[in-house]
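Design a sequence for this backbone.
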């Protein structure tokens, strides 16, 4: 069999990089007064091409490239497709949301695409130094995007807080990588997995695990590492929040799955209880704090913290069951969260004049489609049947029960009931009619935003009505991750998982 060229292993990343470069060069070539909106379409079409390349990678044999630093497998393809889909929706939202005269539009679109490069590379990296580089590529782009709305004081504040706290979190991850290198003498994930069970310096190994978990859990905004989330969500533009609340988290959860299930599977008795506690804290803190919020974006920020807890409950599952459940929940959460932020983007506008729950009062009467979609995504976030949110929670809690964490599943169910209170409060406000509502303008959605909403609705419905195909794809990736090869891999060869 002819070896697969290494470039095919990172084809989506290559396409996204070239797209970002084209956007930057075109932006520099255009006169200052020319519209930059077409550059957003260039970025969107490049992302679609990268999504196609990710699906094409399924035809490649499972293996690694570039001296065993990056892997192509059903697991990486699943998250590549998910991230490219999120980026595409975020770009479509931005096309109809950014004002015509907004500053640095070309850089805005390029940063989104370059951030996607880091996120995709992070999901396929099997070498810890590449993990760090990919994380930095993703993080730097999102730091800048968080502060894009410079005319508002909240934008720079969000960017500075995100940068400072994110730098500390990245330092924790880097220290963890340094310690595991000191203990094992390698940064290759497969080789570390082989050496950890026989390593004499178990203290260094445990310290490395703890530091890496801190760094990754910050990226997914799990409690108690969630303090950055509120101000960043409130200060960043809504399309950017739609992106950063889903795509970087999807990449970080993929990394967390690889670290605990592939690199430290023999330390399950150590990391499983830690993630159990973090899951309970995230669910409880997120939901209790969201109950008191009047600002919609801050309420959804706390909601994202709670959903990180629901997803972490799947890590109590054994082997491929837990991996598949966590992967499926990541896809379900991304679909409904991108959708609800798309609605908020259209209803609130770029300047976000409507920020509180009362500002959304009567939305369904001013715009029946937009109000109906808001209620639909809120229903999915609650976890009502026939939506992606229902099956996401079902598989996550089922995985926890099968892993022996019955109480974790019970706490998750109780928290889901608690979350319904603030979701329904927003839904009720959208259905209420008042005299003052007649004076409010009717929200307008362009073609790009309409396409973004359709994609989010379709994904949420597919995951809720016919989830079998997505679950099968998640399970295929889980089997690869749950059965890593026993020997370190170089030059594009990898031992396939055993038949099941």
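Sequence:
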């Amino acid at each position: 069999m002819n070896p697969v060229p290494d470039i095919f292993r990172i084809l989506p990343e290559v396409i996204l990089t070239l797209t970002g470069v084209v956007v930057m060069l075109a932006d520099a070539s255009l006169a200052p007064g020319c519209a930059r909106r077409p550059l957003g379409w260039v970025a969107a079409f490049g992302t679609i091409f990268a999504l196609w390349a990710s699906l094409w990678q399924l035809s490649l044999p499972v293996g690694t490239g570039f001296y065993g630093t990056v892997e192509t497998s059903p697991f990486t393809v699943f998250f590549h497709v998910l991230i490219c889909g999120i980026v595409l929706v975020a770009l479509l939202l931005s096309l109809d949301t950014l004002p015509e005269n907004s500053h640095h539009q070309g850089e805005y679109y390029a940063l989104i695409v370059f951030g996607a490069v880091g996120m995709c590379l992070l999901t396929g990296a099997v070498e810890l130094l590449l993990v760090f580089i990919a994380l930095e590529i993703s993080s730097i782009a999102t730091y800048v995007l968080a502060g894009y709305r410079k005319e508002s004081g909240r934008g720079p504040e969000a960017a500075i807080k995100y940068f400072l706290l994110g730098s500390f979190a990245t330092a924790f991850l880097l220290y963890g990588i340094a310690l595991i290198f000191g203990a094992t003498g390698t940064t290759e994930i497969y080789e570390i997995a082989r050496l950890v069970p026989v390593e004499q310096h178990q203290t260094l190994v445990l310290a490395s695990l703890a530091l890496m978990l801190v760094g990754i859990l910050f990226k997914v905004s799990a409690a108690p590492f969630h303090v950055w989330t509120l101000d960043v969500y409130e200060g960043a533009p809504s399309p950017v929040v739609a992106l950063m609340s889903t795509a970087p988290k999807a990449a970080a959860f993929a990394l967390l799955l690889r670290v605990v299930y592939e690199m430290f599977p023999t330390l399950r008795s150590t990391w499983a209880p830690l993630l159990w506690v973090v899951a309970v804290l995230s669910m409880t803190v997120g939901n209790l704090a969201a109950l008191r919020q009047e600002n919609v974006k801050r309420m959804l920020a706390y909601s994202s913290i709670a959903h990180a807890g629901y997803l972490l409950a799947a890590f109590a599952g054994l082997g491929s069951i837990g991996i598949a459940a966590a992967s499926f929940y990541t896809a379900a959460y991304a679909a409904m969260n991108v959708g609800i932020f798309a609605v908020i983007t259209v209803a609130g506008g770029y300047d976000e004049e409507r920020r509180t729950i009362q500002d959304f009062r009567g939305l369904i009467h001013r715009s029946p489609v937009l109000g109906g979609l808001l209620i639909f995504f809120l229903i999915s976030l609650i976890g009502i049947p026939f939506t992606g949110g229902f099956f996401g929670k079902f598989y996550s809690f089922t995985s926890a029960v099968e892993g022996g964490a019955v109480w974790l599943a019970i706490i998750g169910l109780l928290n889901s009931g608690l979350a319904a209170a603030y979701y329904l409060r927003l839904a009720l406000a959208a259905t209420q009619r008042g005299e003052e509502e007649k004076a409010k303008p009717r929200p307008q959605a362009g073609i790009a935003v309409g396409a973004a909403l359709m994609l989010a609705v379709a994904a949420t419905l597919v995951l809720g009505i016919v989830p079998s195909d997505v679950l099968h794809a998640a399970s295929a990736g889980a089997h690869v991750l749950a059965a890593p090869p026993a020997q370190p891999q170089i030059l594009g060869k990898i031992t396939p998982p055993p038949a099941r």
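The longest helix spans residues 154-184.
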